[in-house]
Amino acid sequence: MGYGVIEFFEAHDSTIRKKLGRACALPPRALRFNILEAYRIYNSKINFVKGGAVFIFVARKKFFRPIPPGIYPQPGNWVQWTMLKAALFDIDNTLVNFMRMKRNAVDAAVDMMMDAGLPGPKQQLVEEIFQVYWREGIEDQQIFDKVLLEKLGRVDYKILAAGILGYRRAKEAYLAVYPHVHPVLVDVARMGLKMAVISDAPKLQVWMRIVALGLAHYFDTVITFDDTKERKPSPRPFRLALERLGVQAHEALMIGDWAERDIAGAKAVGLMTVFAKYGDEFNTVTSGADHDILDINELPGIIRRANSPVAA
């Protein structure tokens, strides 16, 4: 989580000094505290100080370190913290409204396939296509072939061509980023963070989306399934991204929409995690992330707070 060694420091900021002095009933100038180093200490709340011990909440976890009675260590440096230097993004349902595009594209494909002679109620056909997607993978490029084989026992190329054309037309119309994505990426870049994409999709499909939506210039590297042959939550995609960016795990955050893959995988490697609740397709109740957000425009604030010292 980015926490390091114990550091002793003197409360130099007058407001903090007075607040702690009242809580301890000790002269403000006499205060010396030992506190676990934390890079996300800004805006943490001093709940109470009792018996010579500081209780402080950082990143939703309580840390307790007692000060031995009568012992005042030499004051050291002001609290240290680790700056975030990189942001890692999932792409589908985090930057790109992928499932909206997918649903509309399948809907359009079914309309054209039915016009070409595919039998069955439309809603049933849509559901059958998505069942095959969930079984074979959402990026499967032969999905209509497989559906036709299951329904007709053969591939009818007239129906197949109609489905592909309908899908492609709707895909171009509905492929879009979420609101605020471009301004947020600009803001993150201005803060000096390196950026990467980590996706389980094939390399060509990922790059097609990135280039089509004007996102390519934001990212220093793009990691896809083809780069590691392993999908999240495997640590390999995360570690490869960190290696290419030249940063340590505690210097980076990961934002994604899939708790079991994006969040669990990133936390296991040691990254700060942000759950893109706005893209969640699984009605996740508890993401396990350090932060849950309803709009990507909340991300810059999280980064700024993480990169601010106590006295900021």
Describe the model:
With 312 residues, this protein is an alpha/beta fold. The protein has 3 domains: 61 residues, no CATH class; 143 residues, HAD superfamily/HAD-like (Rossmann fold, 3-Layer(aba) Sandwich), CATH 3.40.50; 76 residues, DNA polymerase, domain 1, CATH 1.10.150.520. It is built from 11 helices and 11 strands. Helix 3 packs across helix 4.
Offer a quick outline of the entry.
The protein is of the alpha/beta class and about 300 residues long. The protein is built from eleven helices and eleven strands. It has three domains: about 60 residues, no CATH class; about 140 residues, 3-Layer(aba) Sandwich (Rossmann fold), CATH 3.40.50; about 80 residues, Orthogonal Bundle (DNA polymerase, domain 1).
